[in-house]
Amino acid sequence: MDGNKDRQIDSGNFQGGDDDGDLRRGPWTVEEDIALINYIANHGDGRWNLLARCAGLKRTGKSCRLRWLNYLRPDVRRGNITLEEQLLILDLHSRWGNRWSKIAQHLPGRTDNEIKNYWRTRVQKHAKQLKCDVNSKQFKDTMRYLWIPRLVERIQASAAATTAVDGNGSYGSVAPPLMNNGSDFVSTSQVTPSYASENSSSGGGSSDGTQGSSVSELTDCYNNFGCFSVGYGQDTAPPPPPPPPMQSSAVGFFNEGELDFQAMEQSSCEWLAEDGGVDTSENFWSTAGPGTDYFWLLQQHLN
DNA sequence: AAACCGTGCAACCGCTGGGCG
DNA sequence: TCGCCCAGCGGTTGCACGGTT
């Protein structure tokens, strides 16, 4: 998130440096970023190996592509994953498993790398706390019946608070919850992913075995709350099975099972507290991104 | 104040699949 | 059909940072 930290490294000294020919590795310098941005601005992207050479970058095409897509692209969004995005990620991962790029397609401005990192650092961490595997039924149940409903509640609450600011639902003194370099904007109360039909047929089994169980149930959960318009597309998934009764507390579900409800409840609270305890959107601008030192520096160079 | 540790994330690596000659 | 090149994907690594001891 903090792109500035990379600037503190003399990347020429980065381990693995220049031992294979002329190629540089490690963190990108401001000069390299500028060269890449300028080149793409003038010639467009694609043909990455050629691009790297023509732009005078001593980088592999891969490296250039990654840098552009994950960091320099103007529409890339940085900052905390919002509650809505968390919901989407949980849901989409339950459908598709570790298909990060596919998941990222439904989160405008987010990169597969970012989502992957989010999953590994947050979600897997909580699975570990529960001493269960992220692919286990236990963990999926925890998501479905605890975290998802809580996320939905929080989103609803913040949406309600937002509309209470003034009758029009516009933001008073509060900054809009989510912005992206001034381009696209996603309001707190609406996330409308357009699921394409690609998801539905398989019904199970990404190649890595992370596929979820009965698919769209997660989304059903928050559909029931009526705060999302999740479009499955007319031609897409078969009608989902009747959703389980929604409860803000999961007690009912776990009487019958052997799940460690207390641990889940606690973990759920911790998770939501750390990500959403403070409206993640409010400190969006405090993180790296447009307006931060590094982007300011880049802008100065480009102007 | 210093050492240590956990976390987050940028960047790299290896693999796969598609396009083309 | 085969081999090469390239783009893209998922997994992994390494490091800076912030918090804790």
Structural overview:
- The chain is mostly helical and 303 residues long.
- It folds into 2 domains: 4-77 and 289-302, Arc Repressor Mutant, subunit A (Orthogonal Bundle); 83-286, no CATH class.
- 47% of the residues lie in helices and 0% in strands.
- The longest helix has 29 residues, at 137-165.
- Residues 1-20, 166-259 and 274-291 have low confidence and may be disordered.
- It binds a DNA duplex (21 and 21 nucleotides) through residues 1-3, 5-6, 8-9, 14-16, 25-28, 46-50, 60-63, 65-67, 69-71, 98-101, 112-114, 116-118, 120-122, 125, 208.
- Its main location: nucleus.
Rg over CA atoms, rounded to whole Å, is 21 Å
* Tally of individual helices: 12
Intertermini distance:
24 Å
Content of β-strand: under 5%
Instruction: Tell the overall outline.
Output: elongated
Mean pLDDT equals 61
Which percent bin holds the helix content? 40-55%
Q: Work out the number of β strands.
A: 0
Give the uncertain stretches in residue-range form: 1-20, 166-259, 274-291
Order of helices and strands: HHHHHHHHHHHH
Most strands sheet: none
Keywords: DNA-binding, Nucleus, Repeat, Transcription, Transcription regulation
Region (Disordered): 1-25, 182-214
Pfam family, one: Myb_DNA-binding
Subcellular location: Nucleus
